[in-house]
Design goal:
The protein is an alpha+beta fold. It has 18 helices and 7 strands. It has helices at residues 8-15, 32-41, 45-53, 60-96, 106-114, 134-143, 155-159, 192-198, 214-228, 234-246, 253-263, 266-280, 286-293, 307-316, 322-333, 337-348, 352-359, 366-393, and strands spanning 101-104, 125-129, 147-148, 165-168, 172-178, 200-204, 207-211. Helix 14 packs antiparallel against helix 15 (322-333). The two termini are 24 Å apart.
Length: 404
């Protein structure tokens, strides 16, 4: 996974809370254009705005920059407040029906890390629910005017890690009920009974609910970074650093190592934690990365790793998109030709409703729908081919552990 190239001032701004002072800001308004563009690309506009607003000496240049950013920040705030209101409604309805639920990322993470739901950009709502209660969750969301979107009937429940629902309200609101904190091809390897047992009572967006333990939240955020790969904005790495620094003693590092070994994600987690440490000098114990990468020949604390499982690390660290990396890994891990065929058909040729929703096509856009199918087919095949190349071309490099 390639470390992102970040505007130097923006990078130093994020490091201010950890080890380094902020470098001098651009003195010309015109020079701020690239900085604002970089902040928007990495979901860091609220962080930049917070720094500018908190300056002791308000220079004229900074006031002009804030004025230029104001419409963008207003859009983020409006979107976040709408999502927060919707999340509160969903949590209350699930609580009334006695359906356990934990909001993950989104407004819940904004409140935990910043104490302000408008402090981070977000695009949808993610919930963690119990797999055996999926039908109840789906019914509850349907009563709130959400409709389920699936590649094919039953595809998500069989092959995925989440369902997907959409509601038309000032645009579209997406809700994804997850039943695991991990992602394919490891989605079903996490001990979710333990995750629910470690959950703690919490209040999110003013509603009494449950929340992930700090350790499980750290794991989930790491898994989410692995899931998105190079598509992940810098904000997500920054928030891992913030989460660790909030209460370092509350992180159960031995449990993180144990979970990595159980699920076969040691190298992947080591890669993420090493990157976060390199970017922000995060207080990650030096022994953790070494333990994550030190796989014994015969393991007693996890499932056996087959040939393809040993190859998933280079594949998932490759440069192809999610449909190239994760989908290929899931396909290789799957057993049975029939299951593989149904999976491939769902990935390459999803339902017309899925295509219209995800590509913004109207009900009358039949000619464009066909074009989109062809474009999607070519894109997935290209991403998959890049994933295959990464399996063959990957060469491990020595990794330096963070200092103790």
């Amino acid at each position: 996974m390639t470390r992102p190239t970040i505007h130097p001032f923006l990078m130093n701004l994020l490091r201010e809370s950890s080890t380094q002072p902020v470098a001098p800001a651009p003195g010309d308004v015109a020079q701020w254009d690239s900085l604002i563009e970089a902040a928007e690309q990495h979901n860091l506009l609220p962080a930049l705005s917070h720094w500018l607003t908190g300056l002791e000496e308000r220079e004229r240049t900074h006031a002009l920059v804030l004025k230029r950013m104001k419409p963008l920040l207003a859009g983020i705030a409006v979107q976040n407040l709408m999502l927060t209101e919707e999340l509160a409604l969903i949590l209350r309805r699930l609580h009334q029906r006695q359906i356990p639920c934990m909001p993950i990322r989104g407004p819940a993470l904004a409140e935990q890390l910043y104490g302000d739901v408008t402090a981070r950009a977000m695009g949808d709502l993610d919930l963690l629910v119990q797999r055996e209660r999926l039908s109840d969750v789906a019914q509850t969301l349907a009563e709130l005017d959400y409709r389920e979107i699936d590649r094919r009937p039953g595809f998500a429940r069989t092959y995925s890690y989440t369902l997907e629902f959409v509601k038309t309200r000032h645009g579209s609101i997406y809700v994804e009920p997850h039943w695991t904190i991990a992602y394919p091809p490891f989605a079903d390897l996490v001990d979710m009974d333990g995750v629910w047992q470690r959950a703690r009572p919490s209040k999110v967006v003013g509603v009494d609910t449950l929340a992930l333990s700090r350790t499980d939240l750290l794991l989930h955020l790491c898994f989410h970074l692995i899931h998105k790969g190079e598509q992940a904005p810098l904000l997500w790495s920054y928030e891992l650093d913030r989460l660790i620094r909030q209460d370092p003693d509350a992180i159960d590092w031995p449990h993180i190592v144990h979970t990595a070994r159980q699920t076969g994600q040691g190298e992947l987690l080591a890669n993420i934690l090493s990157e976060v440490h390199a970017l922000f000098d995060s207080p990650i114990p030096g022994a953790v990365v070494a333990q994550l990468t030190a796989w014994p020949e015969a393991r007693q604390d996890g499932p056996p790793r087959g040939f393809w499982h040993r190859r998933f690390t280079p594949l998932l660290l490759g440069e192809s998109g999610v449909d190239g990396r994760e989908s290929l890994a899931q396909l290789l891990a799957m057993k049975g030709l029939g299951a593989k065929w149904r999976y491939v058909c769902g990935i390459l040729f999803p339902s017309s409703d899925f295509m219209r929703t995800h590509y913004g096509l109207s009900e009358c856009g039949h000619p464009w729908l066909g074009v989109r199918y062809v474009a999607r087919l070519l894109s997935v095949l290209w991403e998959g081919s890049k994933g295959l190349v990464s399996l063959v071309a990957f060469r491990p490099t020595p990794r330096q552990s963070p200092p103790r």
